[in-house]
Amino acid sequence: MIHVSHGQEPPELARCRRRYLAVLEGAWQDIDADDAAAVAEFRKRHDACFERDYRKTSRDALYRQWQHLCAYCGAERNASDPIDHFRPRRPQPNEHEGYWWLTWSWHNLLPSCTTCNSPCTKGSKFPVAGPRLRPFEHNVDREAAQLIDPSREDPLEYLEYAVEEGVDTERWTVQGKRPRGTITASLLQLDKDDE
Question: What is the pTM of this model?
Answer without folding.
Answer: 0.90
